[in-house]
């Protein structure tokens, strides 16, 4: 019997409508088709104040933190703004810490409105999540609005890249779950329900 896996998707776009969200929803649909349980966090809906280390965390952050701690894997999607990720993503991450990302497989996705997208954005995010002790997978996905249409129809090459991106995440999540199961068996612990 296959163990249930929870994949959390984070939309780092403040746009409405959002191309990033549209791409993430396609990823979510494919993950669900592969029998993953998904949860979706939309930064725009959180409406977070600018992080202040001396202020109490808003209730939305406590909810997000609890969701992330239950995640077996994470997909973070961001639009590229001036060659990097959005301030809204940085603000969210400033509220969080190691506990939410420790050893969690993280897949990174970037979108852009121009000719080519995302390399710097993905590299910047990779560094941030590594500093938060997340396990950023080698596969990443970047797409420009110019590489698709409003219905998000992908050519065969782009569709294959998206499939490999999803497979990369699912492989790392599977490894994580096997390792956690092994760790619990070594300690004599009975596996806890998520």
Automatic annotation (TrEMBL):
Statement: the UniProt record of this protein carries the keyword Glycoprotein: no
Coiled coil spans: none
Keywords: Flavoprotein, FMN, Oxidoreductase
UniProt-listed InterPro entries: Flavoprotein-like_sf (IPR029039), FMN_Rdtase-like_dom (IPR005025), NAD(P)H-dep_FMN_reductase (IPR051814)
Pfam families in UniProt: FMN_red
Domain NADPH-dependent FMN reductase-like per the UniProt entry, residue ranges: 7-146
PANTHER family per record: FMN REDUCTASE (NADPH)
Name of the protein described by the UniProt record: NAD(P)H-dependent FMN reductase
Organism: Evansella vedderi
